Known about the structure:
This protein has 146 residues and is α/β, with parallel strands linked by helices. It contains five helices and five strands; from the N terminus they run βαβαβαβαβα. The chain has helices at residues 17-28, 42-50, 75-83, 102-110, 123-140, and strands at 8-13, 34-39, 63-66, 93-97, 115-118. The chain has a five-stranded parallel sheet with strand order 2-1-3-4-5, sandwiched between helices. Helix 4 (102-110) links the parallel strand 4 and strand 5. Helix 2 packs parallel to helix 3 (75-83).
Amino acid sequence: xxxxxxxxxxxxxxxxxxxxxxxxxxxxxxxxxxxxxxxxxxxxxxxxxxxxxxxxxxxxxxxxxxxxxxxxxxxxxxxxxxxxxxxxxxxxxxxxxxxxxxxxxxxxxxxxxxxxxxxxxxxxxxxxxxxxxxxxxxxxxxxxxx
Length: 146
């Protein structure tokens, strides 16, 4: 993927409006062109990925930022569905959640998470985490072609 020719697509699966705003703010200063699409729960996330309902024009994401504690269908179930699907399993999934419980970390990796990050409490630390994720996944890592 050449970031100079194409925008990077990120799907944010997050139900907290404050966290959505912080992530949007952190990505505004990105050196890369990023399109952030957000959905508020696991059911919407899967509809987005499958291009169902109002998401028929959705663009396949280059990266998914996934909260674990979501309404309707939680992040663990969404992660299992993504990594169990031959078409979606290559999309990197970064679990970005408030939980730092060992059980959640272990289960997320067992379900195929590519990375697990606990959300920090402070706004500046949260922004630094998002900028680090952006830098790592789109500057350092080689992603598979779509």
